[in-house]
Design brief:
By secondary structure, this protein is mostly helical. Among the domains are: 1-74, lambda repressor-like DNA-binding domains (434 Repressor (Amino-terminal Domain), Orthogonal Bundle), CATH 1.10.260.40; 77-191, no CATH class. It contains 20 helices and two strands. The chain has helices at residues 9-18, 26-33, 37-44, 52-62, 78-92, 105-120, 124-144, 151-170, 174-188, 194-211, 214-227, 234-253, 257-271, 286-300, 305-314, 323-339, 343-356, 358-363, 365-377, 383-391, and strands spanning 277-279, 282-284. It starts with 8 loop residues before the first helix and ends with a helix.
Length: 395
Amino acid sequence: MPASTRGGVGSRIAYYRSVMRPKMTQEQLAEAACVALGTIRKIERGERGVSDSTLEAIADALGVDPVRLRRDRGPAHTSVHDGLPALSAAIAAYDLPDDGPVRPLSELRAAVAEAARWRLAAQYTRIVRKLPDLLAELARAYHQAPAGARADLAELLVRAYRSADAVAYKFGARDLSARLIELMRWAVSETGDPLLTASVAYVRTETFFAAHAHAPGLRALELAMDAAPAPSTAPETAARGALHMRAAVIAGRARDAAAAATHLDEARALADQVPEGVYCGTAFGPDSVRIHEVSVAVSLGDEHAGRALDVASEWKPPKDLPAERSSGFFIELARAQLWAGLPDEAFESLKAARHIAPQHTREHPWVREDAATLRRLKRASAESLTNFAEWCAAT
């Protein structure tokens, strides 16, 4: 029974807990959400209300968007959007941080690594809640450190800015995203790390995507490849391969099929040399390249949809891939299926994306467009399609 048709917030929580694979107990949910077991029991029995922060913690633990638990079906993205000004304020004072405590470097490194895990898992609510204070603390640490001891802190700033940028870019705050990327470029110059520099070039492509400046974006990536280290180690191979993956997609957006194929071939050859993994903050390996095959096909346009369908017919993302990347595969596959006249399959792909990464899926503009198209195609639409369209605010 869909949660949206059940009684209230408590019964929806109990429903999603019961359909987890494997099923999650109340004790496990309480531990994962950092909420008292007695509180979980009372909420599920309908004996007490639930605050927004508690609801979001429970939703994070269940891996669902908070909107699917709310009684009033209010927009889950509100808390993230509301948090964007705090992110903006934190970076506005990057060179003039307020006084305050600074944790040891090891603790700061652990906090930045945790934020990167949230980014890869598309847990944007957690990022927007924690990153403003962390960015301010990192800025304090950087400016308090002697000049010769700033490289490690600059590295942490780059990685933290990247996690913040994931929220800004995915939630449409493109000016904030561009500012974060410029700060990444400033901070990475202080590190002297060529692999981190390559990762910043990878992220910088967002600004070209947003401006539809595909040809300049491709040139910027090719310059980054020229500056990247020779692929003699796994991290170096992955850095170069990730740049080729990104270049293939932006070449596809520029409708340059030849360049897209060349870069995809280069990425595939490099991926065959390393195991799938997260290198310097970016997932790379054979599985990531397959996902980019679908992305390139969709970028090139509907006449290339068949290639995306071919990839999907023989392969699906393994469960251990980052949620953000796997959900992107199904979002792009849905578009190819829609172009190919397969609306039922497209809807199944959109639902798969939502299951993997609800916040990423709900904010993706293609999801809204495709859900609206599916709703128009199925004039006698099923309740589940209507609910999905309302969930992602498709018009």
